[in-house]
Amino acid sequence: MGAYYQYLVAFAAGVGGLLFGYEIGVIGQVISMDSFSSFFGYRYLAANGDYKDCTGDDYPASCSSLAEDTTGWVTFTFLIGCVGGALVSSMMADGIGRKFSILIGGFFFTLGAALQTSANGLSLLYPGRVVGGVGVGIMSMSVPLYISETSPTAMRGRLTTVYQLMITIGIFIATAINSIIISTVDNTSATEWRLALGMQMVPGVILLFIMFFMPYSPRWLINRDRDAEALTILARLRNASESDAAVAAEFKDIRDSVHAEREIGEASWSELMAPGIGKRVFLGFFLQFFQQWTGMNVILYYQSDLFARMGIDKKAASIPFTLANDFINFIATFPGMYLIERVGRRPLLIIGGVIMGTSLCIITLFVGLSSQTPGLPWAAIVFVFIFTIGFASTWGPIVWTYQSEIFPMRVRAKGTGIATMSNWIWNAVIAKVSPKMIARINFYQYLVYAAACFIMAVFTFVFVPETMGKSLEEMDEIFGSPTHARKSIEKGEKAIVTSA
Ligand code: BGC
């Protein structure tokens, strides 16, 4: 049996990550479908038989909206929903629990997909995008948190990275399925885009079904005084009996810690600024800030454009190259999963920043020189792949792991909520800014992301402590005792730091 149940729980919740990845993979391709753009009125069929963007003043009466506005809003409405979902989730994850938060996230995602699929105009498409985004926002906060709280210390990093693995699987599956839809379905029929968007409901329903059978987080149960249930679930997760000494010791550690924290009363939002907690909020926020400023999503969204700029024939090569890069993104998560419990979080973040920064500089140089030097575009493509390997094995998975493990139970939902909002806010900012950067400085924008990659390596070196091998209850030792621990001591009670 081994740790099979533990993996099952992580993969089941990880389907929430797959939905997130599926959305990333699907929307870029749908936006550029002729069937979608002509249906929503931002492209038109020109006299020569080609579809053209409705831009500037040069468009016929059949255009009902401008191309840049519509594509921008299709992406942006979703991201706004994600920010809102992360906020809602940080407020409800303590009340209804981690498991039900994931279920509610899955429900919103599936509902959003249904609205988008059946949309007959932008007035239904945009709300559908917001609703789907709320679902992804809720899951992106609660899935890593749930996996982290159900995992044993020695496997926590690896199991939490399952979330990132599932994101990358989602991106790859979506690209693959869309490629089939694009090459088999009539590109003038609305069936093409409706099918692509409608397919999202399949993993959505799968998540709702399997998550229903998954256990509650034992830490959350103890916090709700449901100790007997918590012990049974903990024993099952650890593949041992309830009387097993290690299970009993872990149960006691969690309970002591939760009870000591509860004695201080309700956690308020202002407590996030308290000594010992403020630094964790700072780290969660900035690690997610930097994760987005690696430029990974710019590479993902515009990779077919980038490959075309390198001289590769757009139609013939963009699908295979995009698929190859998405596949590498998936495969390269495995070294990260392996190394996170051997090398640790800190060294991987530093190495990852340097690999990505160097790759982006080389890509810029090679693409810039490619018109004079044949062969260089191919070298640039290799470095796009190396960049992806750098992201997928370090900053992609580790940031989600780190944010879900550093906060004490009292403020865990709020702290991880803020970090998750940071992910989505910066994702949205980059989605808005990068098309403008493309218009102004073209591929030189990669140097901006390269600079961010080098800065994040230094940031990690200076500010990010190692958490490998520490239980969730031991994080206070690393980050300094928060105020409430001190208050306990002042009151002459036992400090909340429990296990040793
Ligand atoms: C990031 C996403 C990104 C994805 C790519 C995630 O960790 O948060 O913004 O699209 O990785 O694999």
Automatic annotation (TrEMBL):
The keyword Nucleotidyltransferase does not apply. Residues 9-468 form the Major facilitator superfamily (MFS) profile domain. It is a multi-pass membrane protein. It holds the Pfam family Sugar_tr. Keywords: Membrane, Transmembrane, Transmembrane helix, Transport. It is found in: Membrane. The chain crosses the membrane at residues 7-31, 70-88, 100-119, 125-147, 159-181, 193-216, 281-302, 322-340, 347-369, 375-402, 446-464. PROSITE patterns: MFS, SUGAR_TRANSPORT_1, SUGAR_TRANSPORT_2. Coiled coil: none annotated. Belongs to the major facilitator superfamily. Sugar transporter (TC 2.A.1.1) family. This is Major facilitator superfamily (MFS) profile domain-containing protein. It comes from Polyrhizophydium stewartii.
